[in-house]
Amino acid sequence: MENTVAYNTKETTRNATQATSTVVINLKFLLAGIFFGFLLIKSEVISWFRIQEMFRFQSFHMFGIIGSAIMVGMISIFLIKKFNLKTINGEPIAIAPKKFNKGMIYGGLLFGFGWAITGACPGPLFAQIGSGATVVMITLLSAIAGTWTYGRFREKLPH
Amino acid sequence: MLEIIKQPWPWYVSGPLIGLMVPLLLLLGNKAFGISSSLRHVCAACFPANIPFFKYNWKQEVWNLFFVAGIAIGAFITWQWLFDYNSIHLNPKLLNELNSYGITDYKQVIPHEVVNWQGLFTLKGFVCIIGGGFLIGFGTRYAGGCTSGHAISGLSNLQWPSLVATISFMTGGFVVANFILPVILKI
């Protein structure tokens, strides 16, 4: 009996330590997310109205944002590869290539439909909730249901 | 300093900073910038239901959930204290069009006349909230990524499949925003 208690306590401590280390390891990604959430608001990308403007070609704003983000991303990856940069932990940086399948067209179109209706892609969904638009939690839950449905019927869909 | 942060930012300031998320996540831990995977991890963690697509060690990808939690926190802080929504200048043509659907308040991130809790029980609100959300989740996973994963990460790494995906996103959005959404909003 006493042994069991001691064992359980030890187990609980171990789990707690594990949970703490998970949080510590991932804290930098939480901070990176906070920075990205800040940028999503400052860039006005989270605005349903900005997305409507973009799809109607009524403003350059969104095209400027996405275009310049891609340019900076391209230059960064070029430099990372050219100078063989390592991660802060010293690992070599490896980026998995994207393999084509027809789902990118079918799924891409469907996502485009959703993007135009909700005025949000997945990142802005989280940012809209943070900005106080609580009903977007339902949009997010529905998006999770959509992902689940895709997973459920994946084999039957053309790819 | 705070004044510079608070004032509206032109696209050529915020856009390049968003692009820097790509090298930032690579340098922090070899992570590819992408948000929609978080939806898959939530399915794998909460409702795997023995579906092969959700049977993987989601705990190894938990960084992505920390990242999206950060997005909500960062958005909260920025919206409360570091942003002036009155500074957004939208195209008057768009505002005129939206006026005709009864959308007159542009001071929130969403058109709250349609997208609100009571709206869930109207056809229009249901389509916009539940329908739109479902399409985002289903479509991004089917396409293997969203704006961040394909348009920004993928194109930055010169991946042509990501170009196909990005063109599909834009085509789908163009068609719905111009031809379908006006019909929905008139309901």
From TrEMBL, chain B:
Give TM segment ranges. 12-30, 62-82, 163-185
**UniProt keyword annotation of Ligase present:** no
Membrane topology is: Multi-pass membrane protein
Q: Which compartments does it reside in?
A: Cell inner membrane
Cellular component aspect of the GO annotation: plasma membrane
Which family is this sequence assigned to?
Belongs to the TsuA/YedE (TC 9.B.102) family.
- This chain's protein is named Sulphur transport domain-containing protein
Organism for this UniProt entry = Hydrobacter penzbergensis
